[in-house]
Fold:
Amino acid sequence: MNHVCDIAEPPTLADLAAWARGHGTALRYLGPNLEGRAVYAATRGHLTRVAVTDRPDPHRPPLVWTSPLEHLGKGQAT
Structure:
């Protein structure tokens, strides 16, 4: 059996939220990217959609930065 991971980026966080609602899944905060923008994701089966905000991340920055995409496979938000 082949496993496929389909990751795409909708244009806005609102589009990601609509996709999540339409697929019956939750929106997750993954953490900041290197530019200090918040990264959010929604996953349903092998489909994952990721959106980056256009404003600074309102959360406190982590002491040690890791890529937000590293949290996708762990099924956890930071």
